[in-house]
Amino acid sequence: METRYFSLIPLLVGIYLLGSTFHIFSLNQEYIFYSVLAIILLIVILSKFYVSNKIKKIILHMNIKNSIYELQLTDESYYFIGFRIVGKENNNDIKIDYNSELQIAIDTVRRNKDRNLKVAIVTLLDPAPGSAILFYAKKDKDIEHLINEAILLKSMIESIAPHVTLEPISFKVNPVLPLPKVLGSVIYTGYIGQKKFDVKTDHIISGDYDIELGNILESSEIPIGIRSNDVFRHVGIFGSTGSGKSNTAALLSMELKKKGFDVIILDWHGEYKNLLRDFNVYDSQNFLVLNPIDTDDLTTMDIAELMGDALELTEPQKFLLYLGLEVLNQMHEFSFKTLLQVISANISDNTFMQRDVKFALTRKIIMLFSGLGEKLISSDNGYTYMDLGEKLRGGNIIDLSFIRSIKLRKLYALMILRFLLEYAIETRNKDRKMFIVIEEAQNYFNQMNTVISRALQEIRKFNVGLCIVSQSPSNVDQEVIKNTSIKIIHSIKSNIDKKVIADSLSLDKEGIQLMDKLDIGEALLVAPNLRKEVLIKVKKVV
Ligand SMILES: Nc1ncnc2c1ncn2[C@@H]1O[C@H](COP(=O)(O)OP(=O)(O)OP(=O)(O)O)[C@@H](O)[C@H]1O
């Protein structure tokens, strides 16, 4: 009964008692008038309560009746009644744990063994994607009885899980319902709420893909993927640490290699050799030596820029380095020892300022390149960009984790990337398709790195797809993120990173909230072959 009817009761009782007090001993006309008035009002209220409840019951009953389906398993038939699970709107900012609320309710209902109906949670696609509860029973049971029990169970669940409502589902034609293999087992997607599944099925399903990534989150039966040729418009994989980025990048690399791509993974933390066992691995035992001399089109200025970026050089220091590199280029020789000698001997230090710049630059070079640096970058047996491009065919993992100095690691990785891009531009990459995975991309694409950002725009037409992987998209140049046409967004916890991604995708408030609710391996996929973003569960590699 609605609360406004309750508020009328004290008023009626008041009127009646008033009348009684004044006329308790005399049965006069006024007393009879008040009594009759009170009784009429009481009758009106009670009848309203009864009718409104009855109407609700009838409507619900009819809805449910329209939602009873028959399910034929191998040797048994069942009736089932389905309810879509809808999270109630939450206006205050308190975080509601819909999942555990619902789980407690379901457990309570399932514990009651006396019931005819059993309960299962399934994901459904039709009439719209979402999660649903099924109440089901053997077909020989009385339908009316089942309906009454379903109504009862529905209200039990709603009262134990107050932030969840169950809406009867009606399927227009045949229900498309991926049922659990064994009825009664709870398939629990962990996502409740209509808003999340606002995407219409015909918006998301696309048969137009040749790289399968997994299945849509609402259904383990519907595979989903991307087109391999779309990777040339670049890929962004983002997510907090442990959200499943490396697995997704490894899956993509594996599938693209099968399609004839040459894949090169710049593996910042050394995670990929365990995931992709048939890839060539370059690590501390087997590293690639880079020769920045003999670079023809790769200008000395570009090398100076990359070194300047990795070493955090000032403009005067960068200029001095450039002068030194020019001399080495003419000598056709590169080693850090000769670079230092050239800077000391060939460049004047007449003024105090020149001496200061020179001293600071040589100090930075010495600190970085004595030891491993000397071995990694050298004209002695090193690969030029042409050699490197030719060498890295098939699947390749360049494990960078053995380089302890972050500055050296960054310079070495940047040089490899720059070499590969130069190779593609120079050769126009005819008859080849390349896919370069850049882990911890914020180290390469910070705001300052113009050399790489510029090359990124140039390589579009040369069959090179870059895959930018980052746990910290707010530290990646926003232009770079915008330049990725495929985005795979795993769970993101940090608000600033969420905002950056939401802006690049024009996500609404619900989309933003969704980003930190994803489980490991779950992601929001945006790709040119999909009409709208879709939640997916990525397949696990190995
Ligand atoms: N799609 C998936 N299905 C099931 N498990 C997964 C999936 N993706 C990743 N995992 C598991 O989750 C853990 C973290 O995965 P992964 O290393 O890919 O995350 P990450 O985001 O790259 O983390 P980090 O930033 O720390 O490298 C691993 O144990 C991995 O096996």
TrEMBL record:
Transmembrane segments: 5-25, 31-51, 119-137
Alphabetical keyword list: Membrane, Transmembrane, Transmembrane helix
Family matches, as SUPFAM superfamilies: P-loop containing nucleoside triphosphate hydrolases
Pfam families in alphabetical order: DUF87
GO molecular function, one term: 5'-3' DNA helicase activity
PANTHER family: HELICASE HERA CENTRAL DOMAIN-CONTAINING PROTEIN, HELICASE MJ1565-RELATED
Protein name listed in UniProt: DUF87 domain-containing protein
